[in-house]
Write a structure and sequence with these properties.
CATH architecture of the largest domain: Orthogonal Bundle
Distance between the termini: 52 Å
CATH topology of the largest domain: Fic-like fold
CATH superfamily of the largest domain: Fido-like domain
Oligomer: single chain
Shape: globular
Structural class: mainly alpha
Number of domains: 2
Number of strands: 6
Amino acid sequence: MNYPYMNNIEKLLKEWQSLQPLKPELQRGINQQFMLDFNYNSNHLEGNTLTYGQTKLLLLFGDTIGNANIQDYEEMKAHNVGLELMKVAATDKDRMLSENFIRELNHTILVRDFYKTSKNGDFRYKINVGIYKTRPNSVITPTGELFDYASPEETPALMSDLVAWYRDEEQRGKLKAEELAALFHYRYIRIHPFEDGNGRIARLLVNYILLRNNYPMLVIRTDDRQNYLKTLHQCDLLTGKIPYDGAHATLQQAKPLIGYISAIVENKLTTLIQLAKGEIQEFVEATDEEKVVRKSGQKKWSETLDLIKENPSITRKELSKKLGVNPSAVQKYIQKLKSDGFIERIGGDKGGYWKVFS
């Protein structure tokens, strides 16, 4: 089966591999940026309330700023642990994918058992992490229909089939990495084996497959959520409503998702090559809103840093007056400079000063 993206991906992958190894500082920058972007987007897709800035402060500096739910902070940190766990497993070519590892990932990203309230608010139920579901789960389709995933009784056998199929395909090596990753994602989602965390696990395992095949890892952006869900729904229409059929979907039935994933892989390779060649200086897989904020704020951040360099004892009130913005905006600029490692506050608001690192 051929898709318009795949010939391009082969060429781009060869070019990307020819540029290896990258300079250590560039590789570190790419790794760090992916870590931030993937954790933010994958969790945000599932309703995590942390902003991109809060995510960055949390994962780089351990700071918890704002009024987000404590569980959102915990899950973001835990998801990053899951990402590192996945990367270690993916690069160990002697270690095959297993159900135990998938359950370990679920336990890692969800941290501990917890309770949820039903959608109608009538009752609370316990989410048991790291074990397969004990109650049915379903989703409401765009047309308002109830769409069931595999039943708790079906799930163990279907997960065993899924892992056995993946191991066999990995050994055969007939499928391209983007095909294998997309088809695995779709089959896994149709099982929905856990009571929570299924989307995050699916995206972690997509990157497990890509990384295992020496592809760059990808980010499904939160502002593309509707296209992502629409693509999965298109696959559902091709496979039908029976969970067993979805869990054994063919390449043809998963074609919409294969095309979607392939387009992201192609774009990621293209951009990374430009970055490696110095044609662009930055690659952020954040939301469009975040990019606008970054672009509009860059001048003010630079002006704020210049004023602090000139006078390390300058106060926020003085910065507000000189920049012509309100104090809350000044706080955002300062927080940005702190999170990026340009400045550090020494001492309190009275009698303290700013230490500048650049």
